[in-house]
C-alpha cells in the first residue's frame, strides 16, 4: 500500500495553462516519489479537453479531485 508522508495539493480552478507546469515542478523534486503524493483539485468541466487533462494527470500518478463548486 502506498503510504506517503507528504501530500502536495495543487488547486487549479481556471488555471489550465499553468497546471502541468505546477505538476511537473513537484514531480521533478529530488524527494523519492514514494514519499509524497500529488493531488490536483480542479473545477469539473464536462468537455473532452478536461477528460484528456485528467487522463494525463492520472498517467503521471497524480490524483485528481473534480469539484462542481
Describe this structure in words.
With 69 residues, the protein is of the alpha/beta class. Helices cover 35% and strands 28% of the residues. The chain contains two helices and three strands. It has helices at residues 16-27, 48-59; strands spanning 6-11, 36-43, 63-67. It has a three-stranded parallel sheet, covered by helices on one side. Helix 1 (16-27) links the parallel strand 1 and strand 2 (36-43). The protein is elongated. 9% of the residues are buried. The model has no long low-confidence stretch (mean pLDDT 89).
Number of strands: 3
Distance between the termini: 31 Å
Output the structural class: alpha/beta
Instruction: Please tell me the overall pLDDT.
Output: 89
Per-chain topology:
Layout lengths: L5 E6 L4 H12 L8 E8 L4 H12 L3 E5 L2
Parallel strand pairs: 1-2, 2-3
Can you give me a brief rundown of this structure?
This protein is α/β, with parallel strands linked by helices and 69 residues long. The chain is built from two helices and three strands, in the order E-H-E-H-E. The longest helix is centred in the first third of the chain and has 12 residues, at 16-27.
Based on the model shown, name its key terms.
3-stranded parallel sheet, single chain, alpha/beta, 35% helix, 69 residues
